[in-house]
Specification:
Strand content: under 5%
Radius of gyration: 44 Å
Oligomer: single chain
Low-confidence stretches: 1-72, 803-807, 1012-1122, 1140-1228
Structural class: mainly alpha
Strand order of the largest sheet: 1-2-3
Number of helices: 48
Helix content: 55-70%
């Protein structure tokens, strides 16, 4: 027995002596550390021993690793990680090696725990012999690599999940296989427990987590051993008592001695096991159940629940339960959840309830409060635990405790509601008294009648009447039989009360009808109400059969009872509205097969009477929907229902025309009663026109006359106007539904115009009063509009039949094309003005190449406008169009298509055209291009390889298309995109060189090209390689011209000679010298430096005589030359400024930071915007301190034309002073 008071304060194992066990053990313990196994029984040798690399043979070992024929075998860690060998075979092999050379086997086991913690180090035999556990742990801590923070127990993926299971199983099997001998040798368990205890106290999380899990699993295995020993001791004691009770003549003294000796040995073994468990409990559990890491705390609580359930005699007491109770207040939901699941295993066993009474009384309030836990999973398990407590004793939970759970049946979270519904059902409906045994199964006096009444009372007391569907759904799994007892519900509504019974009130009858309707809907639809669940799930065959049976039963019951219910409650609008919804769930075929036509006639008469009695909108719409459900042409009852509907509508329309004529003749003296009659009749017609086509009654003319009269007189009652407008609206919709194909194009244009008129633009310019008229098309309408465009616009000339066979006429072809262009323009206008989603334009943009001659200008303008609205969304739409074309190509050609095929080349050419539309301003399109690459990379790696593991992803070839946009990336963004690409790549992918991997290789090359250098030179506008050519050309001779006006005044013929003379002088001006600590990286191109230039200072002056002609010119020539010198100084300033920035960027101290992009990761958020672009640069000193993420192209000094050398200059004071310095230099 283990009790908290028996825990020893200090526990030390003795290594000095080994215990000699009896010969009845399966594996006999060796007598000393290096002794060979005795003659006792041995376990069977596993087949895995014959396999090379099994890892647990008794060959030579080095640092715990196996050596066989000079080849290193797998370690225990690798074997468990692979999971290909049976755990018991691995353990048996280790036991054999332990019996032959236990020091090396134990060393291997120690390294197993070290490696399972993620430590790269290993314990050597020298360390094992001469170092204490604390020293070994300290040494392993020093060798632990904590940079990544990941270790096997926390790594994701199926391999590591399987490893965790294998790790726990290995420990359990190890103890089970050693339970008869080795665990009592005071050596193996001593070492393992000491090691795990030391590791569990480590500051390294990986050591602490892994060792705690191992210690807890070891403890669980020892508890199982202790339980078996306890059972064997009881059996031995009974055998001993039975033998002693025999008479002296029949008693076998030898057997008594054997039983006495066996009981003694079992007692000694149990004492040893208890000492081991006490050591683990006090050395590991007591400290780690309140560890800072939630996973470690959860492990401790989960395992103590297993101990209490497995060996309740020893562990199920308050000394151990208190740890679970305390931990229920843990801050982490994961730990609280483990507490509840542990307690559920205990409360589920009714025999243990008496031992839990004190714990229940102490921690009941906490469990009740956890039903409202912020973690849904915790709340669900808390409610389930309360249900188990409720089943164990009705007196434990008070009424207040139960009420705190009752209201959760209306929770929007379905698992909580289902658990609460089960609690409610167990509390209110599961008790059966002896007086209920003789009650009938059906009818008003059956047992379910009282339960249904209880449900109604509960529903009314909750004061949440509109949530009847939620209550039914919560109780559906546990109380479906009760909720499906529709006969009893009908009996409670129709039958007379028996003597002594209290009748239902009107409010209770209304609630019962609502619950009945909700139960019918739940049985027929088989999915939770709105707000619960994530969508429809696929039903099983059994569920489908149950659904059909329930629907048949509903039809047979309510086809007879519904007319009677309508007769009784025909004047109650709320009851009638719910009752009239029942026919929507009928199986109409049963009216014929069950010979229920007379009940159908009675139902139709009742509906007609309801329409005549009521003017409530809900009632009338319910009647309309009932006729709509019954008027199904697939069933034989259609003719009867259609005749009844026509007769009803004929009467109402004739009445409306008669009343309208009298009402309009009254003029200004309109009677209120006549107005009410017109309004109510029109309201009935409108309710039916919503679900039925009433165009044959020509209601448009009457409504137009009514509305026109109201406009002229201005005194028409508001309700009449509203119903007339609504009825006219339905008339238009029904006529639009009948529009033929010949007029569909005109209707499409009208619809597009209407959507534009009633879009969000209608409230512009201070017209907020019109906001109720704003209409946004839903996804279904948007899809219909797009499909119309695809079917009627993007077609070949021969497929267009709109010209009635006159396609041979060229003029007709042009006219048809003009009409199609108008249709496309109407839809594109919806995209541009954000009436439809921008991503719907993907189906339009992908037609750009194929229909370039017909619609290229429209599509290109649409792309331009959408880019102005939202650059990022436009880029996502473009890449979506390419993805759609790529998927279409895959479905047509298969996954093994040829990248030289016309389809793939066409997609790539389209990508190139899309790339050109982004223009040359890379800063403006920076985020859009980055997001385009992000979506493209995700699409390329989205689908796995059809060839299995190791093959290229299905969409990998899309990277070849995506590479067309690489040139639009800035230098630093290329590196960011490349890093994002590497997230999806494995190490093996980077080594592949086969043809199927060429798209990945080419895309990576496109990202790496220019990643170290600027792609464009801000001075010359061409690549740095061409700008800094061997000829050392001036900026004026580059590929891009300088802006007009820079040299405009200096290019006349009168001063051309002066310009050329000054140009030659400028070429000899020394460049700026780099600071001393940057001399190794002054300029990338050494040819920019002249060897004869001296570095006297930062700036030097030239005494070249070529400057002297400036002093001999006339006054006009001097002024012209002065302007030329100043402008040339600006150009030279830009040049030296570029050199300065380049030298700084290439310096060792700033290179790393300068390579980073401005934003942290443009792939992470499309909403980030470039900031901090308004910094100036001051060249007054060489101590330049640039912000870490800036480079020359991203500074605010750059004008919109990045190819303009003069645009590098700004108007700041520093730049102006530098320009003045150069002007002064040139002048003198």
């Amino acid at each position: 027995m283990i009790a908290a008071q028996e825990l020893q304060t200090d526990f030390h194992y003795s290594h000095e002596a080994d215990t000699q066990l009896s010969s009845d053990t399966d594996l006999e313990d060796p007598e000393s550390r290096n002794a060979k196994p005795g003659k006792g029984k041995k376990g069977k040798k596993a087949p895995s021993e014959k396999v090379k690399g099994a890892g647990v043979r008794a060959q030579g070992r080095v640092n715990g690793h196996h050596q066989e024929n000079g080849t290193e075998n797998l370690s225990l860690f690798e074997i468990v990680k692979l999971g290909k060998s049976a755990t018991q075979s691995v353990v048996d092999d280790w036991i054999e090696s332990y019996k032959s050379e236990r020091d090396m086997a134990l060393l291997e086991l120690i390294n197993f725990f070290i490696q399972c913690s993620g430590c790269k180090g290993a314990v050597s035999s020298e360390m094992f012999r001469h170092m204490q556990n604390s020293e070994i742990i300290r040494k392993m801590t020093e060798e632990f690599d904590e940079d990544s923070g990941d270790y096997p127990l926390t790594m994701s993926g199926p391999v590591w999940k399987k490893f965790k299971w294998g790790f726990c199983e290995f420990i359990v099997v190890l103890v089970r296989q050693c339970q008869y001998s080795i665990i009592y040798d005071e050596y193996m368990m001593d070492t393992v427990i000491s090691l795990l205890t030391g590791l569990s106290d480590s500051q390294v999380r990986a050591f602490r987590h892994t060792s705690t899990l191992a210690a807890m699993k070891l403890m669980t295995a020892l508890v199982n051993v202790a339980l078996n020993l306890s059972i064997n001791m009881d059996n031995t004691q009974r055998q001993y008592e039975a033998e002693r009770s025999k008479s002296l003549g029949k008693r076998a003294n030898d057997r008594l001695e054997l039983l006495l000796q066996k009981r003694k040995e079992l007692q000694e073994n149990q004492d040893e096991i208890e000492n081991m468990m006490n050591a683990i409990f006090k050395g590991v559990f007591v400290h780690r159940y309140r560890d800072a890491i939630a996973e470690i705390r959860a492990i401790c609580i989960e395992e103590i629940g297993v101990w209490m359930k497995m060996y309740s005699d020893a562990f199920l007491n308050d000394s151990y339960l208190k740890y679970v109770g305390w931990t229920m207040h843990d801050k982490q939901g994961e730990v609280r959840l483990k507490c509840l699941t542990a307690l559920q295993g205990l409360y589920h066993n009714r025999e243990l309830n008496t031992r839990l009474e004190l714990f229940t009384s102490r921690f009941k309030d906490r469990i009740v409060s956890m039903a409202l836990d912020k973690e849904y999973d915790v709340a669900v398990q808390a409610i389930k635990l309360l249900t188990l407590i409720l089943q164990s004793s009705d007196e434990v939970l008070t009424a207040e405790d139960c009420e705190s759970v009752y209201h959760l049946v209306y929770s929007a979270h379905r698992p909580i509601a289902m658990a609460s519904g089960e609690f409610l059902y167990k509390k209110l409906f599961s008790h059966r008294g002896p007086e209920e045994d003789g009650l009938p199964r059906r009818g008003r006096q059956c047992r379910n009648a009282n339960l249904i009444k209880t449900t109604v009372f509960f529903f009314l007391e909750s004061e949440l009447h509109e949530h009847g569907a939620y209550l039914v759904d919560s109780m559906w799994e546990c109380g479906a039989d009760l909720l499906k007892d529709w006969e009893t519900m009908i009996s409670l509504l129709l039958d007379e009360t028996f003597p002594g019974e209290e009748a239902l009130t009107d409010r209770q009858e209304t609630a019962l009808i609502e619950i009945m309707l909700c139960a019918v809907r739940q049985a027929c639809e088989c999915h939770p109400p709105i707000g619960r669940g994530t969508g429809k799930r696929v039903m099983t065959a059994k569920e489908k059969k149950t659904q059909l049976d329930d629907r048949t039963k509903i039809t047979e019951i309510f086809a007879v009872a519904l007319p009677l219910l309508l007769t009784k409650y025909s004047v109650d609008a709320e009851k009638v509205t719910n009752l009239l919804q029942l026919p929507q769930y009928f199986d109409l075929e049963i009216y014929t097969t069950g010979r229920l036509e007379k009940h159908l006639e009675a139902l139709l008469r009742q509906i007609r009477e309801v329409v005549e009695k009521h003017t409530d909108t809900d009632v009338l719409e319910a009647c309309s929907m009932t006729f709509h459900a019954l008027c199904n042409e697939e069933f034989t009852i259609f003719n009867r229902v259609d005749i009844a509907r026509s007769q009803l509508l004929d009467e109402q329309v004739d009445k409306f025309h008669r009343l309208l004529e009298d009402f309009l003749q009254e003029g200004e003296e309109q009677d209120e009663d006549d107005a009410y009659q017109v309004s109510s009749t029109l309201k009935r017609i409108t309710a039916f026109h919503n679900a039925h086509d009433l165009t044959k009654w020509d209601l448009f003319t009457s409504n137009y006359k009514l509305l026109n009269t109201g406009l002229q007189n201005g005194d028409m009652p508001e309700q009449i106007v509203i119903h007339a407008l609504q009825c006219t609206h339905y008339v238009i919709l029904w006529n639009l539904a009948k529009v033929s194909e010949g007029t569909s194009k005109k209707a499409f244009t009208i619809l597009c115009d209407a959507l534009m008129i009633f879009s969000h633009q209608i409230v512009a310019s201070g017209r907020e009063v019109l906001e109720p008229l704003v209409f946004s098309p839903d996804s279904s309408l948007q899809s219909d509009l797009l499909n119309f465009i695809l079917d009627h616009v993007f077609i070949d000339q021969d497929d267009d039949n709109s010209t009635d066979g006159q396609q041979d006429d060229e003029a007709c072809k042009i006219e048809a094309l003009h009409k199609r262009r108008n249709l496309l323009a109407a839809y594109c206008k919806l995209i541009i003005y954000n009436v439809v989603e921008m991503n719907t334009g993907a189906d339009i943009f992908k037609q750009y190449m194929r229909y370039y001659n017909d619609y290229g200008d429209i599509i290109k303008e649409t792309m331009s406008k959408t880019r102005q609205i939202d650059k990022i969304q436009c880029a996502k739409t473009l890449i979506l169009s390419l993805q759609q074309l790529f998927n279409e190509m895959l479905s047509e050609l298969g996954c093994n298509f040829d990248r030289s095929s016309s389809s793939f080349c066409g997609i790539k050419e389209l990508a190139r055209r899309f790339s050109l539309t982004f223009g040359l301003d890379q800063l403006k399109t920076r985020e859009a291009i980055a997001m385009l690459h992000k979506d493209g990379i995700e699409f390329a790696f989205k689908e796995p390889s059809p060839q299995g593991e190791g093959g290229p992803p299905l969409n990998l070839a899309f990277l070849d298309i995506l590479s067309e946009f690489s040139s639009k990336l800035l230098r630093q963004d290329r590196k960011t995109v490349h890093m994002y690409l590497e997230r999806f790549m494995t190490f093996q992918m980077s080594l592949q060189r086969e043809d199927c991997w060429l798209p990945l290789i080419s895309y990576r090359n496109s990202l790496q090209a220019g990643a170290d250098d600027d792609t464009l030179s801000v001075i010359s506008g061409v690549s740095r390689g061409s700008a800094r050519s061997k000829k050392n050309k001036m900026a004026s001779t580059g590929k891009r011209r300088l802006p007009e006006g820079v040299f405009e005044s200096s290019c006349s013929s009168s001063d051309a000679g002066a310009w050329m003379t000054r140009e030659q002088g400028v070429q000899q001006t020394p460049v700026m010298m780099s600071s001393p600590h940057m001399t190794s990286t002054v300029l990338r191109d050494a040819k920019k430096l002249r060897p004869d230039e001296g570095y006297v200072g930062v700036y030097t002056m030239s005494n070249d005589p070529q400057h002297t002609p400036l002093q001999q010119t006339t006054q006009v020539a001097w002024m012209v030359t002065q302007r030329q010198q100043e402008e040339r100084a600006n150009l030279q300033n830009a040049k030296m400024r570029s050199h300065m920035q380049h030298a700084i960027r290439r310096s060792a101290g700033l290179m790393e930071d300068d390579e980073e992009p401005i934003v942290e990761d443009v792939m992470m958020s499309s909403e980030q915007r470039l900031e901090d672009l308004n910094e100036g640069m001051d060249f007054d000193t060489m101590d330049i301190d640039l912000p870490p993420s800036k480079n020359r192209r991203e500074r605010s000094e750059l004008k919109p034309d990045y190819f303009d050398p003069a645009s590098i200059m700004d108007d700041s004071s520093s730049g102006l002073s530098l320009s003045f310095f150069f002007f002064f230099f040139f002048f003198f």
